[in-house]
Amino acid sequence: MLRIALDRDARVPLYRQIIDQVAAQVRAGQLSAGFRLPPVRQLAMQYGLTRLTVHSAYAELAARGLVDAHVGRGTFVSASALDQPDGRIAGEAPGIGPGVLAELLRMRERPGLLSFAQAAPPPASFPREELGAALQAAIADAEALSYGPIQGDAGLRSELVSVLAERGVRRPPEEILVTGGAQQGIDLAVRALVPPGGTILVEEPTYSGVLELAAQSGRRLAGVAGDAAGIRPDLLEAACRATEPRLLYLVPTFGNPTGMSLAPDRRRAILRLARTHRFYILEDDVYGRLAYDGVSPALAAEDSAGRVIYLTSFSKMLAPALRLGAIAASPGVLAMLAGAKQSSDLVSSSLLQRALALYLRAGHLQGHLERVCTLYRERRDAMLAALARELPECSVARPAGGLNLWLRLPPGVSERSVAADAIDAGVGVAQGRYFFPQPQPSGFLRLSYSLHEPEQIDAGIDLLAGVIRRHEGTLARARQVAAPLV
Amino acid sequence: MLRIALDRDARVPLYRQIIDQVAAQVRAGQLSAGFRLPPVRQLAMQYGLTRLTVHSAYAELAARGLVDAHVGRGTFVSASALDQPDGRIAGEAPGIGPGVLAELLRMRERPGLLSFAQAAPPPASFPREELGAALQAAIADAEALSYGPIQGDAGLRSELVSVLAERGVRRPPEEILVTGGAQQGIDLAVRALVPPGGTILVEEPTYSGVLELAAQSGRRLAGVAGDAAGIRPDLLEAACRATEPRLLYLVPTFGNPTGMSLAPDRRRAILRLARTHRFYILEDDVYGRLAYDGVSPALAAEDSAGRVIYLTSFSKMLAPALRLGAIAASPGVLAMLAGAKQSSDLVSSSLLQRALALYLRAGHLQGHLERVCTLYRERRDAMLAALARELPECSVARPAGGLNLWLRLPPGVSERSVAADAIDAGVGVAQGRYFFPQPQPSGFLRLSYSLHEPEQIDAGIDLLAGVIRRHEGTLARARQVAAPLV
């Protein structure tokens, strides 16, 4: 029997409480496959809810594959409800619907799947020998296992000075804060600089992690459209007038998801707007060093007014499990970020910080980046060639770096259906709508080409093209059927 | 010349903006030693501030040693303003005044200081050989350097089942979330369960990290007094009626800072209140396995209503630089916590998680805990003996585990002055007021006995006793001088 305990004072909406509890009871085996959920009307009456609330919960449960809805018969726990891998629970986080990052990470774990869904370095690229040696050297000092300074290991911050200088960012070690990857850097900036209810501006489309974070932490989001040259300054100015933003989140170099970079003249215009409207720009530069056809310096390199907070991470350029990134900002802002770091998780691992410092001091990074950029260039070219061959009707731009392609689907083809069918066919892709503040069909897919070798990329694009063509065929038949009725 | 740019829309109070900017300019060398700050009245008029605002800023700058105030002459940048170590900036985080955790970590780095200020395991205790071997074994699998599941490595979560069972907490791996230490666990619970403006209840006194976090994140705090048997249920009930709390943060076993544990009958009363008033209890059990005179099971072990969120960490029992802890909670709550984890820093390091899993699987933890508990028992006894000998006038209770003693100072002796003079004498202590929601003189010091050997503890208590006796002497003389005037 279905029992639900609703907390009307909770921050979690009622429909989501229903979802969570049904899901938990299915997982716990308290509701087994074939169990019929109470009709919407009955559950609504029983708990004093609107029918819309119950309907929303059932619809989301169906979308997750936990229940099947049969018109006229009712809603039943799905026979495949327990096929979810263990990590599934993470995808059920409240705040925003799809739990997109969780979905990507989960897909990645699905054995045999060709994943174009996650922008991550391939395990074969990790410099395990050098990092292993650096770890052994670091652990020889017992202090490496202690707490360290909140701002980050002094030795690592010294090394970071030159890492940042490669992107034109000149900051002394005292103006650098070590973070737990770029995601934590974004979180710290939001915590320190945007009050609850305050507005964060983002380019449309943008990195999904910032969208989930804003939704969960009670900050407002306003999207500003971009084009091939990046975010549009005229629309940004209008958004500034409308919203009084505290922070503009940008990926100016090899943007996520589009792979495109912000044009030089727009950079100057945007810096001017930041000064005039007194907001900070959080520059997420995680892809900046993954350049294979040339690159501009970071936006922060042009900032003379202390308005740009520069953020980078070693997750894309080296190895995600280091969980290390860095923020550079003016002293006043950095002090606020350090305060947020302290409340978030106190410090990042001294051991990993010292190992990374040793790795950098040994001069390993440059060679590693050259190796992986060669690899990624090859993979980008393989994917572009396969797309041109198999899907000439889908337009795609050629990124000069980073890990992502942004593919426009043929008109009318549903990204959601394509993504779902692609998984069944053995290929993971990221739906474009995940990268917009208001998730709605975008007509795009994000394809990351980093994880697989050119032959696998060929095979994966073949499979994806097959799926897209089937959808085009269905659409064409539907149009033919519909035509005589007009 | 002093230039200040105030942002009246910022979340940071104006007086703190002044502090941050003066501090930044001193550090940057723009204001040098001996520079005279504008008089309070002048700065207030110039920027349209109240004199109280400017006065508060100057007072805090003086308290930090950045400026010296000379009555009748003015306020000057201190000659020793630049003597602050590099990590200093972290202590200047806004939100709450003293930046206590930062201060503790900084003190810890001061060479030669006998530190009783930080509750941390001594570097000599770290099982470097076993952890080093586990790291090498983990890195042999390239996947260990990838992202992993948000909820945490499945292998580690399996091992955590038995770690939690040792404290009477029975949860399957699916109901466990890996966190970046206990501090992140607290942050996740606050993010997921307490809306901005919502109330967190804490015992008075309590762990200072939760106080800073609440202040920074815009949650309200309400303190509930405790006594030798822990938090008082009658006062807790009154606080529930007054504040409608979402969360009660507790350290029921070997509490921080007092070292005392919550009595069994109070545990039942508090669980009843959580059910009645429908709040969650966040049980911080970081000291639970550091028991050397017997221990009760965790509070979560008695919870049948899913009201207790159990939190532990390997920072105190093994090594802080692992930055790994765990939360166990009912599935619905865990899903919310996982969502918060994802937005905070995505995942904890797979490499460190897998290494810890290997260390636990090899059965190393139990032996390690026996060794460190022997060590800590000896150190506790050494400190209690030295205190009884040198400071019989100061009362102190005998903790059965954990790392902390709570020392009551003689009446009238200022903890702030004692703490400052103790550092000059070569001993770091934590002022009691840091552990209260409203920082005001508490008449207590927290003394952590974990970092030093018995002989050093003896020497440190001798030095501290000298400082306290000097303050008692000054007080006695002041009373003698004052007496004839009455």
Q: Report the portion of residues of chain A in β strands.
A: 5-15%
Domains of chain A, number = 3
Largest interface: A-B, 98 and 98 residues
Beta strand count of chain A: 15
Helix amount of chain A, in percent? 40-55%
Number of helical regions of chain A: 16
Outline type of chain A: globular
Secondary structure: elements and pairs:
The structure is a homodimer of 486-residue chains.
Chain A: H1 14-27, H2 40-47, H3 51-63, E1 67-70, E2 74-77, H4 100-108, E3 114-115, H5 128-139, H6 154-165, E4 176-179, H7 181-193, E5 199-204, H8 208-217, E6 220-227, E7 230-231, H9 233-243, E8 247-250, H10 264-277, E9 280-284, E10 308-313, H11 314-317, E11 325-328, H12 331-345, H13 350-361, H14 364-390, E12 404-408, H15 415-425, E13 427-428, E14 430-431, E15 444-448, H16 454-482
Parallel strand pairs in A: 3-13, 5-6, 5-8, 8-9, 9-10
Antiparallel strand pairs in A: 1-2, 4-11, 6-7, 10-11, 12-15, 14-15
Helix pairs in contact in A: 1-3, 2-3, 5-13, 6-13, 7-8, 7-12, 9-10, 14-16, 15-16
